[in-house]
Amino acid sequence: MPFLEFKNVEYSYVGGDDELIQALKSVSFSVERGEFVALVGCNGSGKSTLARLCNGLITPDSGEVLVDGVSTTSKSATFDIRKKIGIVFQNPDNQMVTTIVEDDVAFGPENLGLPRDEIRARVDWALSSVGMSEHAGSGPFRLSGGQKQRVAIAGVLAIKPELMILDEATGMLDPNGRREVLEIVKKLNRDENMAVIMITHFMEEAAAADRIIVLDKGSIAADGGKELFTTPEVFEQAGLDLPLYVRLAQRLNNIGLDVGCPLTADEFADAVAKAVKGGEGKK
Ligand code: ADP
Ligand code: MG
C-alpha cells in the first residue's frame, strides 16, 4: 500500500462572483515511504491546493486522498494524518508562533501531548538536524530568512512526520539559504527515510529529487524520474524553465558536442570532459 495516494481528485474554489475555479482536475498519483518527489508547475497550476489536500486541510470535491490507506475525509483519522504529514510554507515569518526558537519547535510535540522528556529530546534532535542548536534560546527576529526557514523545518520535524511537504519553502530565500534548506532536506530523506514532496519553481531543486511531477493547469502533465529532463517539451509546455545545466547541455548537443543530459555542475563537467576527449580520439 502506498503511503499517500490521490485517486481522481477534483477540487474547485468558489471565486468572488460565485464562479467555480477548478484548481485540480482528476489528479491521480501515489508516493511511497522514503521517496523524494519534486512537484513543479507555474503559478496557479494547483500545487498548494494539492499540498493542502494531502493532510486534510481541505478535502476533495470528488475522488479520494488516502494516507496509509485511510481517507482524509474520515474524521477519526485527522489527528493521525497531521502527525504523519508536515507542511513547511513559503513565508517563514508567518510560521513562528512564539518568541523563542526552542519553544517554537516544541509547539508541535506539545500539541501531540507527549511527555516532557520526549518533547525535550525531539526539540534537541530537530534543532541539531537543521544546524540550529546554538540558536535554541534566540528570538526569531535575530535570524536570517534561511535560519527562520530552518526553524520552521525543525518545528515540522519535531512531529516526526513520515512525509514532509515543502510548499515553495525556499521561495523567499537567497541562493545560500536555498542551498542550506535543500541540503538539510536531502539529508533527512537519506538518513531518516522521510518522504519529501518539494514544491518548487527552482528547477535546480527539482533536479535534486528522484522523481518529478509536473502540474499544468490542475492536471498532471508528467510524472517520472530524472529522465524527464531529456524531454524538455514537457517542461516548456507547462511554462517552466529547464535546469541550468540541462539548458547548457542542449546548446552543446545542438552544435554537435554530445554531452547527454547532465543535471548538476559535476555531471556537466564530467560529460563535457568525456565528450571533448571522445572527439579528440576520433580525429
Ligand atoms: P499554485 O500553488 O500552483 O500557485 P494554487 O493551488 O494556489 O496554485 O491555485 C490553483 C488555482 O486555484 C488558481 O487558479 C488560484 O487562483 C485558485 N485559488 C487558490 N486558492 C484560492 C482561494 N482561496 N479562493 C479562490 N481561488 C483560489
Ligand atoms: Mg502555491
Describe this structure in words.
- With 283 residues, the chain is an alpha/beta fold.
- It folds into 2 domains: 4-229, Rossmann fold, CATH 3.40.50.300; 243-283, no CATH class.
- It is built from 10 helices and 10 strands.
- The strands form 2 sheets. The protein has a 6-stranded mixed beta sheet with strand order 6-7-8-3-9-10, sandwiched between helices. It has a 4-stranded antiparallel beta sheet with strand order 2-1-4-5.
- β7 (163-167), α6 (175-192) and β8 (195-199) form a beta-alpha-beta unit.
- α3 (101-111) crosses α4 (116-129), α3 (101-111) packs parallel to α5 (145-157) and α4 (116-129) packs across α5 (145-157).
- The longest helix is centred in the middle third of the chain and has 18 residues, at 175-192.
- It is globular.
- The termini are far apart.
- The model has no long low-confidence stretch (mean pLDDT 91).
- Bound molecules: adenosine-5'-diphosphate and magnesium ion.
- The site of magnesium ion has 4 residues, from α1.
- Magnesium ion binds next to α1.
